[in-house]
Every structure is written in structure tokens, then in C-alpha cells.
Amino acid sequence: MNISEAKEEILKLYLKSLKIETSDYYKHPVRLVQAVKSIIGINTDKPVEDLLFYCSSYIEKFEAKDNCLSKEFSEIPLMVSYKKLEEGLLNKDIEVAATALAELKTVSEGSQIFEFFIEYSLKHSKESLVLIWSIYRMSFFSDRKFMDQELMLCANSLIESPKTMDFHNVHLGLIKENINYIDIYHVINSVYYSNTVRIDKMREYILSSSIYNESEISNFDYKSRNFLWEHINSLKLEDLCIENILKIDGFRAVMKIIEDQKMNPEKFHSIIRKYREFL
Predict the structure, then answer these.
(1) Which of 62, 197, 211, 257 is 20–30 Å from 191 (CA)?
(2) What is the rounded distance in angstroms from the CA atom of residue 262 to the CA atom of residue 239?
């Protein structure tokens, strides 16, 4: 399988995953598809086919539902604002939220709406942030082909999210006690270093909690991301599981930040060794 064939398969799997609703946002199929896409991207010359096979079998475990945004407007509404969308989310009214999304779509290509969802998640400490960030990332990969489904899944996840994220005392030293912490940690760091229009407000919400310690990521010991690709490529299909795939993608995301920000890290290699049992 070449990289073009892998991309087409990833897009098919992504569309299927967008039709799935589950309260476990950490293990939502969308997050798996995004993780697989990113890991394959480490070495595009040799796509790991077993990752795609595992992805497909994992998605088949869930019931798919049509959650496409159904409202359309032939003309731009006179009044379009994010306030209406926020009110729909706060009041858990999916009809109001869907109407607001359809209105916003007439004046936005999509990025601003996804950024609003990310900011709202941070502001209200919504656990579904980890899912929404994956959708945001995949929306670029899919070139917004599935935006209606993406927007509705984001809105539904925020409305249905029964929990708030634990924004306190979360750092890499606690991964062993809580397997989801690396998910939260790498998403928070990815948001913090993202290039978005709303980044100032996003960072304000991030820094208002004790989850984020900018010096912690700056102290990582850099190691090529190929290490992660080589590890997962060595696994057999029957050895793959969503927990390990998400874990590997979490480390990949942090390593990419180190590269992109040209940091001078010191500790990352020791962290990889310490938590090798999770890989």
C-alpha cells in the first residue's frame, strides 16, 4: 500500500467514525483515526497497513448514526453570531446549536467555528476537548469534505459531555496513575503552541489552570519520532490496541512540538524509558 492509497483509506475510516457517538471521548474512533494518520505520517514511504486494519475492526464495534447538519440557508441571515451557538451549548439545546452552526457556515469556511469549539471546551473544562482537537486536526487532512458531520459531532460532544476535565495537578509524572493524562497533556500543549486566531484567549484559559507547566515540555530530551514509528511497525496486528496507539501518538505530538519550537530539551528520553511499559 502506498501513501495515496493509505490516505484514501484513512478518509473512508474517518467518515465512518464521524457517525459514531460514545461518551468515552478518549477512545472515540475519531481519535484513533487521527492518531493512526499521524503515526503513518512519520514515515510516508512505508505506511503501516496493520494500523488501518485495526482501525477498521475497531470502528465496526460501534453503531453508526447519521448526525449530519441538516439545516441550510439559501441566503446569508441578517444576524450571525457565536453568541447564539454558545447559548445553545450552555442550554444543551442541539436544535438551537444546529441552527447557529448552519448560519455561521454561510460566513465561515470552518476554521473559526472549530476554534470556537476548542476555546469553549477550555473555558468550560469540557472533557470532550480531546475529541474536538482530533476533529479539528482531521478537518485539515480531509480538506473540510465532511464539515457538516464534524460540526455536529463537536456540538453533540459538548452538550453530552457529563464530566469536566481534571485541570489540576496533571503532569507527566502522573501518567502511571491515570492513563488519560498523556492525552490531556499533549492536547493542551498542542493547543498552546497552535497558530489559531483565538490563541490568546485559549492560552489565557490554559494558563489559568495548574495543568499546564510550560517549562515541563521545554525540559524534554529530544529523540527522533522514527523511534515511535519503528516500535509500532514491529508490533503484530493482534498486539495493537487503542490505548497504546493513542499513547504513542501523544508522545509523537509532544516530540513534534519540540521540533517545531526548536526547543533544547533534556528529559524526554528518560520519560520514554520510564513509561516504556505503556508503549
Answers:
(1) 62
(2) 34
Quick count: other Cβ atoms within 10 Å of Cβ 217?
A: 23
* 10-residue averages of pLDDT along the chain (279 residues): 93 95 90 95 89 96 77 61 92 92 87 94 84 95 93 93 59 49 76 86 72 50 67 86 87 78 54 45
CA–CA distance, 207 with 214 (Å, rounded to integer): 9
222 lies in a domain? no
pTM of the model as a whole: 0.84
Residue 154 lies in a domain: yes
Domain enclosing residue 88, as ranges = 82-160
Kindly give, in sequence order, each residue whose CB lies less than 8 Å from that of residue 208, ignoring residues fewer than 6 positions away: none
Q: Are 196 and 136 in contact (CB under 8 A)?
A: no
